[in-house]
Amino acid sequence: MSVAYIFIFLLLLIAGAPIVFALLIGPGLSLALDDQQQFYPAILARLYNGIDSFPLMAVPFFILAGELMNSGGVTAAIFRFAQAMIGHVRGGLAQVNIVTSMLFATLSGSAVADASAVGKMLVPEMVKEGYSRRYSAAVTASAAILGPVIPPSGLMILYAFVMNVSVAALFAAGAVVGLLMVSGLMLVTMILARRRGFPKAERKATWGERRKALTQTLPALMTPVVLLGGVLSGAFTPTEAAAVACFYALIVGIFVMRTLKIADLPRVFVTAAAQSGVILLLVGAAVSFAWIVTVSGFAESLASLLTGVTTNVYLLLLLVNLLLFVVGMFLDAGPAILILGPVLGPMFVGLGVDPLHFAVVMCVNVTVGLATPPMGLVLFVASSVSGEKPAAIALEMAPYLLMHAFIIFLITYAPAIVTTLPRMLGFA
């Protein structure tokens, strides 16, 4: 079988075709050109089987939970809590943006949702306080990347589904890496605040105000505690955890915080269903594409090409980081995982790399790609909420992207950062 589908797929992407159609049309045309239409039923079978998965049900459930929390005004409560805690330092509102994104990530698991929800609220606030609109959008986009890294992560669930890696282990590793990324972003912000003279709050919040903000936000902040505690303790599976998240979000929004109305539920359900439908169709198409990649022998050819350059694992990890960075510039994180995971994962595991370690390196790489031009979705969301051009935001993000690159380098060549906690908990 020829690999013409690769070129057809790339041409369709360049032409601006939706990713799901490019994934299906590429192999379809390639098989027709090779006169191998007998494989069409196999492609359709894998499209259906790719969606028909119990573990994958966690994705739409987490999307619904995120929508319920966001519609219930949780983002505003998180903002008030973060503002009370660290809003008084120089560049405090930028630090609040990062902390708000981190806390929101524990509810949504989505970089796009993070950038949209946090950006709509904080970009106008930052501009009002004296920050440039360009910088406000840049810090929002940089922090939104945390969404798919900090658990519960839909991206990591996808990787676990494709590559048969423990979801609990990925969540534990993601928590460590996510905190490392948060620390890096806050350090960069602190340096920029001193150099640029960022504003700070007129006064420091009292302990009474902080306690009140914590009390108001605590029900939402307990969400990741309930979910991760349940998954890590073995009380329920990740899929069951996602269902628990929906129920918890519903109870908190309607009865505890009283910010979610019954009348809002139809809109929330429709929005979550639409988002889930897009993602699941994409998963099915990507599974079909990955099967074609395997059958055609392209995966083996790529592996041979990389190992032909060098057999040094450290150099190969550097090459794959560069490859994933470039791929992330053009391909969304989910499709990148679904397409390249089955290609690269087995190769590096065969070379002695821990499968959990490679999983996290790959997930973080493609996630950072969400904020890099020309196709970064988070970049376009930040542009939409701020009114700034994506190119201008990307230039302003340079210090943050350098920090993300440093952290990727760190977790690539210090695998203990990734694997220690999952092993201590017995997941790896």
Instruction: Give unreliable regions as ranges.
Output: none
Fraction in helix: over 70%
Mean pLDDT: 83
Main beta sheet strand tally, sense and closure: none
Shape label: globular
Q: Which structural category fits the helices and strands?
A: mainly alpha
**Strand percentage:** under 5%
Q: What is the radius of gyration computed over CA atoms, rounded to a whole number of angstroms?
A: 22 Å
- Count of structural domains: 1
Written account of the structure:
- With 428 residues, the protein is mostly helical.
- The protein has one domain (4-424).
- It is 78% helix and 0% strand.
- The protein is globular, with a radius of gyration of 22 Å.
- The mean pLDDT is 83.
Strand-helix topology:
Blueprint: H1 4-14, H2 19-33, H3 40-51, H4 58-71, H5 74-86, H6 92-108, H7 111-128, H8 133-144, H9 154-163, H10 167-196, H11 207-233, H12 238-256, H13 265-296, H14 298-309, H15 313-330, H16 333-350, H17 355-368, H18 377-386, H19 390-396, H20 398-413, H21 416-424
Helix pairs in contact: 1-2, 2-13, 3-13, 4-12, 4-13, 5-6, 5-11, 6-7, 6-8, 6-10, 7-8, 7-18, 8-18, 8-19, 9-16, 10-20, 10-21, 11-12, 13-16, 14-16, 15-16, 15-17, 15-20, 16-17, 17-20
